[in-house]
Structures are given as C-alpha cells and as structure tokens.
Design a protein that fits this description.
The structure holds two protein chains of two kinds. By secondary structure, chain A is mostly helical. Chain A has eleven helices and no strands. Chain B is α/β, with parallel strands linked by helices. Helices cover 39% and strands 24% of the residues of chain B. Chain B is built from ten helices and ten strands. A six-stranded mixed beta sheet of chain B has the order 6-7-8-3-9-10, with helices on both faces. A four-stranded antiparallel beta sheet of chain B has the order 2-1-4-5. Chain B is globular, with a radius of gyration of 18 Å. Classes of the chains: A mainly alpha, B alpha/beta. Chains A and B meet through helix 1 of A and helix 6 of B.
C-alpha cells in the first residue's frame, strides 16, 4: 500500500456497511440496556450490603488504638499456640488427604469420558456441587453438634467440603485429557483397566497430587477459623482472645498464623512446581 | 566493486554480522545479507537451523548479541522503540486477536503510527480505517470485515495477518513459515499473494519455507541457513537437488 490515493469504491462502501452494522440502533439499545441493568445491580447490591463509609471512618481510629495496645506481642503462651496451630495443620492434612482418596472414585464417576456408569454421571456431578456448595465451616458446625467439640469435627467438615472440590478438579482434568494415547494402548489388546493405568494415570497423577497440595494450602487457611465454631485448632484461641479483648495475645496469634500459612504456601508451591 | 557498492545502495534491509546464542547453543553465527525492494527471498533450512531466531532478531522481538539489522542508515532495534512499524511480520500460527473483528485485527497494523489513546480505545481515523479496508480488499476478504477473527478458516486467517502487515505500509515483510499450517492449495495462494505484494508494493519479502518446490516456484532468490550459518545464497533458479541435499543432509 505505497499508494493510498488508489482508494476505490468497494473498500469505502464496505467501511460504510461495517459502520452501519456496528452502530445499529438495536445494537446500541442493547448495549445501553445492559449498562443500565449492571448499574441497577450494583446500586441494589450497595444498599443490601449496607456499605457505609462513614462508619468505616469512625471505626478506624478505634482499630488503630487496639493495634497500639496490641504491642508488644506476648509469647508466654507459645507452647499452647504451637500445639493449637499443630491441630489446625493436622486437621487440614487429614481432611485433605481423606478427601482426595474419596475424590478419586467420585471423579471417575463424574468424568463423562471415563465413567463406567454414564447414567450416574449427572447425579455424581450434583453430589460434587452439593459438597462444594456447603462450606467446611457449615459442615463443622453440624458435626460439632453430633461428634462433640474438638478438631475431629473440623476434620470431617474439611473432608466433606474438600472432597467435592478435589473430585471436580480431577474430573475436569480427566475430561480434558487427550485420549489418543489411551486409544492407542487399547488397540494393543490391553484391557480397559490396564489401558487407563498405563495411559491416563501418568497424566493425571501430577494433577491429583497438585490439587491435593493446593487444597491443603487452602484448608490450612480455612481451618484457622474453624475453632470459632468449636472445632479445635488455633481459631479457638483467636476467639478466646477476642472475647477477653486481650489484644497482645490476639496479635501474637495472628503473627503466628501468618508465618505458618506463608511457610506452608511456599513449601507447597515449590512442591507443586516440581510435580509438573 | 562498483556493482557491489550499487548493490549496497539499493538494499532496503541490511544484516550486518548478526549473532545470537541461547546459553551455550549458538542460534545465529554472524549472519549477513541484504534485501532489495521488491525482492521475494525464500529462506530454507532444517528445523532448528535458526530461521525463526533470525526473524525474531530482525523484528526486534529478540535482542541480537552482536551485529545489527539496518533499514537504510537506521538500526532496527532503535526503530522498533519508536514504533515506526516498517518491518512487518507474518507468523505460522497467524497470531490474530481472536475476539476482535477482522477489520480491528487489520487496524492493528496502524498502531505504530497512532496516539496511545486511539490504540487503547480502538478509535482509528477514517483514513486508517479506509486503508485497512483496502488492505482487506487486497487479500479478497472485504466481505469478512465484520466477522470475529476466530470464525475464519486457517487460510483466511493468514490472509488477515497479511492484510495487517500491509496496513503497516512496511518496507520489509518477514514471513515465518506462513504456510506450514495450510494445505498445498491454500499455501500456493498465500505465497502468490506475498509475491504480488513484493512486486506491486515494492516490498522486500523474506519467507521461511520447508517445501523446495514452493521455494523454486515463488522466490527470486533463496538463502539457506544451517546451524545458524548461511550456507547458500543464490538465484532461485540455481537451487538444484544437489544444493538442497547439502542443506538438509545429516
């Protein structure tokens, strides 16, 4: 195009048609309709959420005062805190591992291309959605009532909720797995089970382990608050300190949670990178 | 000597001992050549010979370790920062923005010359948009201007990419295996389109290829590169099987 003067009618006409279609009245009306709907949605949400910035402005100085009173942190109860954090990490570890073990058969049922019982595909997906939809916190609340106070209720809560997430992650990976290798191995005369072990397990195993680690990280963070409903762990101490307005103690616990969560995130992130 | 000097004067792009390593591996070992306006050059060589690295260094996507590509008297790296867009590139996998319309994809070719706000809001001047339409007309895709790029077939996508390159009003077009993802009929169409652009617009086109018959049919000149070194640089008519064997033999 060294010579733009060679403009001709066809291109100009096509441009006019393009602009006409792009700027049609229907198209504009639709755009404005969506903009208005979105605006309305946010206005209603703002009201329902009772967002009140003046309350935040009034509350912040008090938070600042608490922070000042929280200094210095108080490490005299460190052994108890460490035991409680140990409980929290243990809850997350046992809960996540149990969840992953149960998730593997569920994931097989819930992946369209691998399920041995296609009629159970949708019910399996519904079950996973139900498990994912109910938070570990809510499960823990229920199980504290039935198995009593303590970390065990937290383990069950985490296991049930995580099972849904883990199975969904694995099933999605299985549905996206390339089946060429599986088909190729089936043509060698290997039976279905051997073929899956040979062709899919090497592909899926890193996904299973990686999602297990990811969910473990997530659950360590999530289970710090499970103590608030009586399901053991550091959350219980957190709640006690808040109830007693013991800010140095509260501050210490928050620092410890931060350190442990960071260390575990880094470690698990490093491990996950090595898996892929 | 006089002829050589004249050659130098008439070249549009000159590579002056360009070299590039990746760690220990030498990707380009002092490569020099020049391209004349209107010349269609086929770039041949086995996979991994350094063809893509060469293009990426010329286009400024990769920084050469030493040497330079010169457009006239100007070093290309510096040009690239100023965004003049005088070197256009066409890729094997088309590299279109899938969710934009075909016209908006072609207009991307103007981005080097328009203010940032125009680029960000995709508000181009009427002249630029008319130019883009004319480029689409050149590649026979006027009727598809409104479609989203991902709705096109492979051959059509590559023609959009060529229209985008045309919209840059380039002096040089680098085509990195533009036909490797296309069937032979479509491939011939793309190559004759590139060749006609070289001839009509007086643009230097250098195009990497794996098919010798296409290289012979469409190129004026072929350059063979092997392990980062130029081992062949001759008129396309001189590319016999013997020369080809030497280029590809293990």
């Amino acid at each position: 195009m060294k010579d733009p003067a060679r403009s001709d009618d066809a291109a100009a006409r096509a441009l006019a048609v393009y602009d006409l279609n792009r700027n049609s009245i229907v198209g504009r009306a639709r755009l404005w309709f969506f903009v208005l709907m979105a605006l309305l949605f946010y206005i209603v949400s703002w009201r329902l959420a009772e967002v009140d910035l003046s309350r935040l402005a009034n509350g912040l100085p008090q938070l600042g005062q608490w922070l000042v009173r929280a200094w210095p942190p108080n490490f005299t109860e460190l052994p108890i805190f460490i035991q409680r954090i140990g409980e929290t990490v243990a809850m997350a570890a046992i809960g996540t591992t149990a969840a992953t073990l149960f998730a593997i058969p569920l994931a097989l049922l819930a992946s369209r291309n691998l399920t041995p019982f296609p009629t159970l595909y949708l019910p399996a997906r519904w079950l996973l959605n139900a498990l994912r939809g109910i938070d570990a916190f809510v499960f823990a609340l229920l199980f504290v009532a039935s198995v009593g106070l303590g970390p065990f209720a937290g383990v069950i809560g985490i296991a049930l909720h995580t099972c849904g997430s883990a199975a969904k992650l694995i099933a999605d990976a299985a549905e996206n797995a390339k089946l060429d290798a599986l088909h190729a191995i089936e043509t060698t005369g290997a039976n279905r089970v051997v073929s899956v072990c040979y062709a899919l397990v090497p592909d899926l195993l890193p996904v299973v382990l990686s999602s297990m680690l990811y969910l473990f990280e997530f659950n360590v963070r999530a289970s710090t608050v499970l103590g608030i409903v009586g399901a053991g762990g550091i959350g219980q101490e957190l709640k006690n300190s808040m109830d007693l307005l013991d800010f140095p103690r509260l501050f210490t616990i928050i620092i410890l949670i931060f350190i442990v969560v960071t260390v575990i995130d880094q470690l698990s992130g490093w491990l996950r990178k090595r898996l892929t | 000597m006089a002829a050589q000097a004249a050659d130098l004067m008439s070249s549009v792009l000159r590579l002056d001992s360009m070299s590039k390593r990746f760690g220990e591996r030498v990707a380009l070992a002092t490569v020099s050549f020049s391209l004349k306006p209107g010349e269609f050059v086929g770039l041949l060589g086995p996979s991994g010979a350094g063809k893509s690295t060469l293009f990426r260094c010329i286009a400024g996507l990769e920084r050469a370790d030493s040497g330079a590509a010169l457009l006239g008297e100007q070093v290309v790296g510096a040009l690239h920062r100023h965004g003049s867009g005088r070197i256009a590139m066409v890729f094997q996998q088309f590299a279109l923005v899938d969710r934009l319309s075909v016209l908006d994809n072609v207009l991307a070719g103007r981005l080097g010359t328009v203010p940032t706000w125009r680029g960000m809001l995709r508000r181009f001047s009427h002249e630029d948009r008319l130019l883009a339409m004319q480029c689409l007309e050149r590649v026979s895709l006027l009727d598809h201007a409104q479609q989203r790029a991902d709705q096109l077939s492979g051959g059509q996508k590559q023609r959009v990419a060529i229209a985008r390159a045309l919209a840059q009003k380039p002096d040089v077009i680098l085509a990195d295996e533009p036909i490797a993802s296309l069937d032979p009929t479509l491939a011939g169409g793309i190559l004759s389109l590139l060749r006609s652009i070289a001839k009509v617009d007086n643009v230097a086109v250098i195009c990497s290829l794996h098919q010798l018959n296409f290289a012979r049919e469409f190129s004026d000149r072929v350059i063979g590169i092997r392990a980062g070194e130029i081992v062949l640089d001759c008129d396309a008519s001189l590319l016999d099987d013997h020369a080809a064997n030497r280029l590809y033999e293990h």
